[in-house]
Design brief:
Elements lengths: L2 E2 L2 H21 L5 E7 L3 H17 L2 E7 L5 H13 L5 E4 L9 H7 L11 H8 L8 H12 L8 E5 L6 H10 L3 E5 L6 H5 L4 E4 L17 E4 L3 E2 L5 E2 L4 H4 L5 E2 L7 H17 L6
Parallel strand pairs: 1-11, 2-3, 2-4, 5-6, 5-7, 7-8, 8-11
Antiparallel strand pairs: 9-10
Length: 284
């Protein structure tokens, strides 16, 4: 049997570490604060926002939920972001995506101060990652690096294949693996011989957005498989991009769905917000 990488356990460890750091910050008069803006009442977005508020409460951070009507104008949303940018008591700002169609998502992301961009989506954050400078990193890829490191899985020198080139997962994932000295190949919908490329991977990151797409024929014996996908199958059961039952017997380590990558995203969001608060400390 492979080693099952337990994202619930590792995310809980990170949140417990952050809880201690938040207590130290409070002793110095700083309470980390995350402002989450939700436009409309999409049920999935409401669940995500509530989960973020629960995580904030657990580690002792303040959370501010800014719930706006779906009819809010883009200008009104940008004005709210501007006011939060200027509020020194707010350390992180997150706009829950997607936003309604009449609002330009790019303008919204660009409006958030890079110093408060705890989602890691601002062009300045992405640029900093690409040239190896300090900046916030997109939470899911950052969480995957923590899963690997805390599971004592070596990245340096390994063949790493990332399937998917989204701005939120695929591209930052590739850059983070490069930062850890992995040899990285990024695959996408136009990749030829996808199966052959995947079979070279010591570490395979599946972020293609297709349920149970990857079976054992895509995986090298003894590889590490990270499944970023989350779907509901025909029986309404959660599954990933990887056919877990067919792949598990061929790999050395694998993330399950649910309970693998998913819990890490919020843990790293909390981590980014605490780091933002730490940036406001000037030692005497």
């Amino acid at each position: 049997m492979p080693y099952i990488i337990d994202g619930k356990k590792i995310s809980a460890e990170i949140k417990d570490e952050l809880k201690q750091e938040v207590a130290r910050l409070k002793e110095r008069g700083i309470t980390p604060c995350l402002a989450v803006i939700q436009v409309g009442e999409d049920p999935a977005s409401t669940v995500y926002v509530n989960n973020k508020q629960k995580a904030c409460a657990y580690i002792g951070m303040e959370s501010r939920a800014c719930r706006l009507a779906e009819t809010v104008t883009e200008q009104e949303l940008l004005e709210l972001i501007d006011s939060l940018n200027k509020d020194d008591s707010v350390h992180g700002i997150l706009v829950q995506l997607p936003v309604p169609g009449h609002i330009d998502e790019k303008r919204v992301i660009d409006a958030i101060s890079p110093q408060k961009d705890v989602d890691g989506f601002h062009p300045q954050s992405v640029g900093a990652l690409s040239i190896g400078e300090q900046g916030f990193v997109s939470c899911t890829p950052a969480g995957i690096i923590q899963l690997l490191k805390r599971s004592h899985i070596e990245i340096s020198g390994k063949e790493c294949v990332v399937v998917g080139r989204s701005n939120i997962v695929g591209k930052p994932m590739a850059m983070l693996l490069l930062r850890e000295n992995g040899t990285v190949t990024v695959c996408h919908s136009r990749t030829r011989n996808l199966k052959e490329v995947c079979r070279r991977a010591d570490i395979l990151v599946a972020a293609i957005g297709k349920p149970r797409f990857f079976d054992e024929s895509y995986v090298k014996e003894g590889a590490v498989v990270i499944d970023v996908g989350i779907h509901r199958d025909e029986h309404n059961k959660l599954c990933g991009d990887v056919d877990f039952d067919r792949v598990a017997g061929h790999v050395s380590a694998i993330t399950p769905v649910p309970g693998g990558v998913g819990p890490m995203t919020i843990a790293m969001l909390m981590n980014n917000c605490v780091e933002a608060a730490q940036g406001n400390i000037v030692d005497e």
